């Protein structure tokens, strides 16, 4: 629980036009006021993330995983203007730092999506001309548009982006929609909707085995043939241009935007990211890569068990699908004939193998990343836990969400781990991230803080009152942290015939020890508590509101003081004082 400190101010230096924002601080701190206790004030949900941290900001005394397998307990992370300034157990906080108590919080690097379609729209198809020849369509009609930029197709205000950010993703490799060669990808950060959020453009060439209806190439084999044709013609075009630029007496080469857009692939400046849905498509992509020599990323990999050796030999980048199949045998009748039982056993075996794909990649030493393409945000943690139960280590799971994709995308210098100088992208949870009790409370992306509501955990001892919480009546000791420091006090609550009544003590702003105020509007319902109280400071009456979550004899919440902002507050109920 936060104890908010007020600073003693000189009345002659107060501009009354706005007493809250024009306060001139007198020299010494007097220490301040309060923030209430037992309520684990639920962080006010702010999924909009409109509050970017532009001042120096710190979360202290948290458990911070700076990289997979590297965790620091009782640590502080300091960041400013979207960049991490320091991480560790001995971090000096500059004067004026906004501080949040992270005693019960766990901090991880923000997740990085190796291939995302969130917020990406499909471009409209061009009209077919009156003399359309289905055997020789234009590149655009055939779905060959390598010049397109996914940024022109992305809507950063799309709800899908908000949904993926809510489960921890802070950076995504956006893949364009379209035909067999859809265009160039880009890397964006899920920060402010008022920003372009672009980290890098023209990062990969998107391709897929998607033929065009009613024209060539209309089949996967036709796509392979056409891809070879485009690639080889691009090589000839690049060679012609280079010779023309260095010699005289040659015909001017014809400019072709399709072929020119392939040059970065030829030069291996960017890879081809091939979307694959099964082991056959993986083999086809690997065959093209072996023939033509481009760098390859495999997007949406499944059935890896059938092609693991080929993937390793090709040194291809693997982006594993986060989608898992359903168990189609769990509702099957047990009374089956031998043939039906054999079919069911084969389906069951294929299902169980699919759950082990991530573990197989880890065991083989393949540093894969995850892609959300084709997945649902609500299934993320469920599917990750299933993979972990089937052989994937927790460190490898976190690496596939963070540092592996940072390295795959070439952004490891500023993303993927929590280190000084890197982007302030992080996921903040209420428990270790892969445990059943873990809930995401905050996501920080590009220095913008997104707050999410958390559900109070069920009381372990089952001792709940009619409001869904353990007994509230009693004495609570609270602590709150503010930029001015930590302070605390006691909350005494009683359940009378007229509802809850109580008093709260806090540090007197006048410096006269402890002061006491009446707790008003106390509400306890559905595992949450809220109340208000008034504090006299410098001739002003300041209204303080507290709200948060109750779990057994613990309260976690926030204390708000008008324009002064809100601060974390935690409280613990003292034993042997059930009623006053």
Notes on the structure:
- It is a single chain.
- With 580 residues, the protein is an alpha+beta fold.
- It has three domains: 100 residues, Urease, subunit C, domain 1; 275 residues, Metal-dependent hydrolases (TIM Barrel, Alpha-Beta Barrel), CATH 3.20.20; 100 residues, Lipocalin.
- Helix content is 20%, strand content 31%.
- It is built from eleven helices and 25 strands.
- It is elongated, with a radius of gyration of 29 Å.
Summarize the structure.
Pfam families: Amidohydro_1. By secondary structure, the chain is an alpha+beta fold.
CATH homologous superfamily descriptor of the largest domain = Metal-dependent hydrolases
Look up the CATH topology of the largest domain. TIM Barrel
Q: Which sequence of strands runs across the widest sheet?
A: 18-19-20-21-22-23-24-25
| Percentage of β-strand residues | 25-35%
Total number of strands = 25
CATH class of the largest domain: Alpha Beta
Which second-level CATH architecture of the largest domain applies?
A: Alpha-Beta Barrel
Largest sheet: 8 strands, antiparallel, barrel
Radius of gyration: 29 Å
Structurally, the number of domains stands at 3
* Share of helical residues: 10-25%
Structural class computed from helices and strand pairing = alpha+beta
Described by the principal axes of the CA atoms, the overall outline is elongated
Average pLDDT over all residues: 84
The number of helical runs is 11
The residue ranges in which pLDDT falls below 50 over 5 or more consecutive positions are 1-45, 458-469
Q: Specify the oligomeric state.
A: single chain
Distance linking N and C termini = 21 Å
């Amino acid at each position: 629980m936060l104890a908010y400190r007020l600073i003693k101010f000189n009345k002659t230096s107060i501009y009354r036009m706005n007493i809250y924002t024009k306060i001139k601080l007198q020299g010494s701190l007097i220490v301040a006021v309060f923030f209430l206790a037992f309520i684990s004030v639920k962080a006010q949900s702010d999924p909009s993330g409109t509050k970017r941290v532009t001042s120096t900001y710190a979360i202290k005394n948290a458990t911070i995983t700076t990289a997979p397998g590297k965790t620091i307990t009782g640590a502080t992370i300091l960041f400013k203007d979207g960049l991490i300034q320091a991480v560790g157990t001995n971090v000096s906080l500059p004067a004026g730092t906004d501080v949040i108590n992270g005693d019960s919080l766990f901090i991880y690097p923000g997740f990085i999506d190796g291939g995302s379609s969130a917020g990406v729209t499909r471009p409209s198809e061009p009209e077919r001309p009156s003399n359309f020849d289905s055997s020789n369509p234009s590149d655009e009609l055939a779905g060959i548009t390598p010049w397109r930029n996914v940024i022109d197709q992305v809507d950063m205000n799309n709800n899908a982006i908000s949904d993926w950010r809510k489960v921890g993703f802070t950076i995504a490799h956006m893949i364009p929609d379209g035909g067999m060669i859809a265009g160039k990808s880009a890397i964006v950060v899920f920060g402010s909707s008022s920003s372009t959020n672009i980290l890098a453009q023209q990062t990969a060439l998107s391709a897929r085995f998607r033929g065009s209806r009613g024209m060539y190439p209309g089949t996967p084999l036709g796509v392979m043939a056409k891809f070879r044709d485009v690639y080889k013609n691009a090589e000839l075009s690049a060679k012609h241009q280079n010779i023309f630029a260095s010699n005289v007496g040659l015909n001017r080469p014809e400019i072709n935007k399709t072929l020119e857009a392939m040059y970065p692939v030829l030069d291996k400046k960017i890879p081809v990211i091939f979307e694959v849905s099964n082991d056959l498509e993986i083999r086809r992509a690997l065959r093209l890569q072996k023939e033509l020599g481009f760098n390859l990323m495999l997007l949406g990999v499944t059935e890896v068990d059938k092609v693991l050796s080929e993937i390793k030999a090709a040194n291809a980048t693997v982006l594993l699908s986060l989608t898992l199949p359903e168990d189609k045998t769990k509702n099957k009748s047990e009374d089956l004939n031998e043939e039906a039982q054999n079919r069911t056993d084969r389906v069951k075996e294929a299902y169980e193998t699919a759950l082990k794909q991530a573990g197989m990649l880890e065991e083989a030493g393949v540093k894969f990343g995850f892609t959300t393409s084709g997945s649902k945000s609500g299934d993320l943690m469920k599917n990750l836990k299933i993979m972990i139960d089937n052989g994937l280590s927790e460190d490898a799971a976190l690496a596939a969400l963070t540092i592996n994709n940072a390295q795959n995308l070439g952004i490891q210098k500023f993303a993927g781990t929590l280190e000084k100088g890197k982007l302030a992208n992080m996921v903040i949870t209420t428990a270790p991230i892969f445990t059943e009790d873990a809930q995401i409370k905050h996501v920080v992306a590009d220095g913008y803080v997104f707050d999410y509501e958390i559900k109070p955990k069920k009381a372990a001892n089952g001792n709940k009152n009619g409001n869904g919480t353990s007994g509230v009546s009693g004495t609570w000791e609270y602590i709150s942290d503010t930029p001015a420091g930590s302070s605390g006090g006691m909350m005494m609550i009683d359940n009378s015939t007229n509802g809850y009544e109580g008093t709260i003590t806090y540090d007197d702003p006048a410096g006269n020890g402890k002061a006491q105020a009446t707790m008003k509007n106390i509400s306890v319902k559905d595992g949450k508590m809220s109340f208000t109280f008034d504090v006299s400071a410098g001739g002003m009456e300041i209204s303080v509101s507290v709200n948060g979550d109750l779990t057994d004899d613990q309260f976690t919440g926030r204390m708000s003081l008008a324009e002064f902002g809100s601060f974390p507050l935690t409280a613990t109920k003292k034993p042997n004082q059930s009623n006053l």
